[in-house]
Q: What sequence folds into this?
């Protein structure tokens, strides 16, 4: 929320398996999907953690693959492409077949991105072997990292967030009103 309202660095990551955070978010996710009576398909649910109380809050859900390169994060961590699996699900349903989710990896991944002062930011100074993908978009800097250890992903994201602030960060004030 603060990135949209105030500018800054966007980070997201997979949660450590078995952690209280994972348990809380998965429980809320199951409740939201049940409340929406969703049976099949792809969803992208967002939850935020309160900075004051540390509690997790439901933000939104959509019947689509997540944006902001989160599909790449899922593929890096789990080894499956959400777009391809959504298509396989639809084809299976159309043919009266049962869709089965393929076996997934259980690695960890995270993304850090920001608006950049430079037209084409150069992230070549970031050389850690865990870097899987580099965002190539005008006035944006971004890296996707993956590792078998959640702590390593967390360490890299926070390190990069500080460096991105110095190397790239541009903040554009939000418009006075947002038109939809």
A:
């Amino acid at each position: 929320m603060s990135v949209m309202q105030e500018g800054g660095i966007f980070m997201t990551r997979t949660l450590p398996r078995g952690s209280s955070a994972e348990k809380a978010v998965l429980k809320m996710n199951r409740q939201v999907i049940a409340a929406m009576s969703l049976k099949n398909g792809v969803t992208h649910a967002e939850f935020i953690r309160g900075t004051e109380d540390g509690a997790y809050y439901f933000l939104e859900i959509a019947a689509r693959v997540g944006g902001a390169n989160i599909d790449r994060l899922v593929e890096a961590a789990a080894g499956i492409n959400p777009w391809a699996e959504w298509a396989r699900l639809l084809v299976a349903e159309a043919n009266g077949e049962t869709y089965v989710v393929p076996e997934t990896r259980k690695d960890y991944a995270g993304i850090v991105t920001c608006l950049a002062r430079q037209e084409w930011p150069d992230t070549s100074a970031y050389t850690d072997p865990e870097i899987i993908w580099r965002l190539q978009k005008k006035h944006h800097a971004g890296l996707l990292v993956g590792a078998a250890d959640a702590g390593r992903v967390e360490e890299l994201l926070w390190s990069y967030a500080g460096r991105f602030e110095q190397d790239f960060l541009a903040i554009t004030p939000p418009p006075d009103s947002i038109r939809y």
